[in-house]
């Protein structure tokens, strides 16, 4: 899907945005076209109106127009206060009697929700990580509309915290799983973009020695992540810890059982951040994702996006 409404911060320095903010006639033309622009919030008044710099001009976002949910009382005031000093997506709604430009961030966000609600489940979207919590990663899917990727949907390989996979301000891709238009909610996943078991296992061969990350330790062995969607099992040895980086020897790869047998060779220096994400899919739409190999004898892991998602309207 084309990125008409990018995450906040990605439009600010574009030539189109700068041209639209360069003069008052250009801004008024953008108002007539209802173009989404981007400026920087420079202060928040005691009444929680935002002052926004658009090129050489300053506009005002009234409090109720500062974010989805403020008018309804479902969003907290921190959604406004936290924007000071940061880019904000807006539309110009009018010029008041004093000549001030009156802006709306809420209208820009409603555009995003309308567009996403018209997309089928499985649509691939660009996004930007805004912050992390123990239960998931929060991402801007356009104009400051924030949605969460639950920790269970970050990857097939289990992780103890989303910081194992993402970092703030990181550009990522996500899969749309549903939109609840009335509740202003967007539902996302991520793991389906990182490849199937076979696609990941094809990068490795028995006899290789490669780096991995320990993601779980049990009495019977240690689970070592070779890729975000591929984990192998090694014999447990003393001194191992979760999220430790190690070198491993690949003993065998068994597609029917979806198993990779490993030997741990030794510890490696830990990375300073999450490893790069090896995306297999970054555009278009997924209708069905079959993680398991066709001849797998274990319970099949898959996700079907071909039917309308039930999470499209508040009940």
Per DSSP, what share of the residues sits in E-state strands of 2 or more residues? 35-45%
Helix content: 10-25%
- End-to-end Cα distance, whole Å, is 28 Å
Q: What is the residue-mean pLDDT, rounded to a whole number?
A: 94
How many distinct beta strands?
17
Order of helices and strands: HHEEEHEEHEEEEEHEEEEEEE
Summarize the structure.
By secondary structure, the chain is mainly β. It has helices at 15-20, 24-33, 78-81, 105-117, 197-201; strands at residues 37-44, 50-54, 57-61, 87-95, 101-104, 124-133, 136-140, 146-150, 171-180, 185-189, 209-218, 221-227, 230-234, 245-254, 259-267, 288-290, 302-304.
Describe the model.
This protein is mainly beta. Helices cover 12% and strands 36% of the residues. The protein is built from five helices and 17 strands. The strands form four sheets. It has a five-stranded mixed barrel with strand order 1-2-3-5-4. A five-stranded antiparallel beta sheet has the order 8-7-6-9-10, covered by helices on one side. A hairpin with a 2-residue loop joins strand 2 (50-54) and strand 3 (57-61). The protein is elongated. It starts with 14 loop residues before the first helix and ends in an 11-residue tail after the last strand. Mean pLDDT is 94; it is low at 310-315.
